[in-house]
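Journal club prep — side note

Before the paper discussion, L.F. wants everyone to see what a predicted structure for a comparable chain looks like in token form. Sequence:
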Amino acid sequence: MLSARSIEIIESSPGWRRHRIEFFDLPEGRMVVKGQRPARGPWAHRVLNGIAALAGVPCLKAVPVHGGQKAQDVEVRRLRALAAVGVRVPKVLHVAQDYFVMENMGSTNLVCQLAEGGGEIARQAWLRCAQYVLDAHMAGVYFSQCFARNLIMLPQGVGAIDFEDDPLEVMNLTDAQARDWLAFFQSSLWLLDVSHRWIDEQLDFILSQETPKVQRALALAANRLAWLRHLSNNRKLWGRDGIAIRAAALHLHRYRLRHP
């Protein structure tokens, strides 16, 4: 926990009030102070929920980010719950009315490893993260924003950040875990400079260890979203997100064909 002097340093700083997040080097170590954000409007959620309903894919439903005290309470609760079952996430060190303090896990995320590592480094980083997600699911938990940017590469393994929302508010555990895989694949597969065969082998190995319920939820998503693999590979036309979605849809479609 933090000393009274460290708390005084944090509370006297305008940085986290102005920018919401501020980094500190304190006697207890490197810390992240996270202030509260305003609530977001409902329109984006309504659009995404409409798409999820039309596509018949429950795990695509939007998860509300409440903002304010409620979002902070959600994040602190989720960080503590994940840590309690052995999932590596930042330690919560202090909670105040309008901010909380957590361990700084660093800034080297999976995106950095895939974009800069290349070759075997990138492959091993991706596999480490996939195993981390699977291990969390086997422990009966789930993430919130399971994107490559939120998976932090550490000397001792992998950690995750960003837990301001709770998918179980709008979906069941199976769909929340399937949602984790969709986010992970969408944000990482397009960055892997490897053969389709290598990805096929890894998806077969990793997903074969998932629960049958999660496998069925992913199969449903793969079937309903398969048409997205036909998007053009022209980044100028669709942008980075379009290319990322196309890659995930393509590889999930290939996975589904191998496992009818």
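L.F.'s comment for the group: The CA atoms of residues 128 and 252 lie 20 Å apart. Keep this in mind when we get to the figures.
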